[in-house]
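just leaving the lab so this will be short. what follows is a protein written twice so to speak, once as letters and once as structure tokens for the fold. can you read through it and tell me how you think this chain folds. anything you notice is useful, everything is just below:
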Amino acid sequence: MMVNTGDLKKGMVLDIGGTLYELLEYEHFKLGKGNSEARIRLRLRSMRTGQPTEKAFQTSDHLKRVMVETREAQFLYEDGGLYHFMDNATSEQWPFGREQLADLLPYLKEGSVVEVLTQDSQALTVRLPRTVELKVADAAPGFKGDTASGGGKPATLETGLTVQVPFFINPGDTVRVDTRTGQYVERVS
């Protein structure tokens, strides 16, 4: 199925030169003064390697869209650089390599529920939920009088991710983190 560059949406899967990419971001731009041709810049992630890349196209170009199925899955465990996920409906399991999941690893813990994109029953990539809940493993202690609006401090979460949190957050607290930006959202408990 062909799609016009004006109809692109984040999360679409595109076949560009025989390689499947997930569309992360897109922006329209003009090359410069005197050139009226508008172009579109795409930020993509390879479904095979997980590596991000950028490509530019003319706004009149058409790209091949690949239809994929989204399946809810659970992260089971890591073994020798392979991360194993299980389909919640069928119990089918898929391994993914560390390089393929590099950007997602700071948000993954055993038992995490994610989406696995598949095409013809072949797993292509993993998509995280918008937010995840992680336990604070290490943070400087909070003191009486520290408030949510009074600044912040770095905290290391159970997966090794470091985020800026309000002063009142302590080790053992559970916080919600936005997986798109890597920023603290709120304390859960």
Remarks:
- The first strand starts at residue 2 and ends at 4.
